[in-house]
Amino acid sequence: MTRPVRLIATDLDGTLLHSDQTVSPRTRAALNAARAAGIHIVPVTARQPRGVQRIAEMAGFEGWALCGNGAHCVHLTTGETLFTAHVEVEAQTRLALLLSERVPDVRFASVRDGGEVFVAQTDYAALATFEDHKRDPSDMGQHALSTVLDAPSLKFIVRHPTLTPRQLLAEVQALGVLGFAVTHSGAPFLEVLAEGVSKAWGLAHLCTHLGLEAAEVLAFGDATNDAELLAWAGRGVAVANAEPEALAAASEVTLSNDEDGVALVVERLLGLN
């Protein structure tokens, strides 16, 4: 027997948000209806809290949010942190030194202190735009690699001026080193997390806190970093514009983000259309 949905977990960029970074009136209305029905609405995103706050008012997010690909769970109203998971210094140092030998011109950045502190290697900022990390590149700093590596990271960023994230991922995997998880979200860099961490890992921990099970979760996503989430949830839905990994992991596909695919599924869930 199918369990009723008690929590909706949704990615933001490329999934809930239109391509212009807005939440449509239809999507906001669907989320409001779900909240009125007693369903938890949880953004699950690669963004840090400051990037989620930019969307919170448009989407009506007021409760828990999973940031940094599941590594950081924070309450958007109270500021309470439920948990964090960090890449250890030893693991990120081993990765950075080995990859630098293998791939010239690779650059790194460390996201710390609840996502508020961004310590970037010299020349990293020259590769970045505001939308990459939802912060001005001039605020990223120009640090020696030793400084970038000297404290644990909520998220450890790996970037190259010419290699795509998929190409760079292949280079990381070829190193054969352990101690971290690595993914990408459609942004022009890799995102390295603590070992075992993913959006599914983070949501499982939040659901335990809320007394919920995977069978009671409806999840939406579009990118490679959403694949574990879509596979873990009782009902995993990929938007039509999703990457192959997300499409393969999902149990169904809805319309694209720009066609309000999330809203369509939520409306049908609630009997609104």
Helix vs. strand class? alpha/beta
Spans with pLDDT under 50 lasting ≥5 residues?
A: none
Sheet of most strands: 5 strands, parallel
Q: How far apart are the termini?
A: 23 Å
- What is the number of E strands? 13
The CATH architecture assignment of the largest domain turns out to be 3-Layer(aba) Sandwich
CATH-defined topology of the largest domain = Rossmann fold
The ordered string of helix (H) and strand (E) elements is EHHEHEEEHEEHHEHEEHEHEHEH
CATH homology superfamily of the largest domain:
HAD superfamily/HAD-like
Number of domains: 2
Sheet with the most strands: spatial strand order: 2-1-11-12-13
Q: Using the coordinates above, name the CATH class of the largest domain.
A: Alpha Beta
How many DSSP helices? Answer: 11
Which quaternary structure do these chains form?
single chain
GO molecular function: magnesium ion binding; phosphatase activity
Protein name: Hydrolase
InterPro entries: Cof, HAD-like_sf, HAD-SF_hydro_IIB, HAD_sf
GO cellular component, one term: cytosol
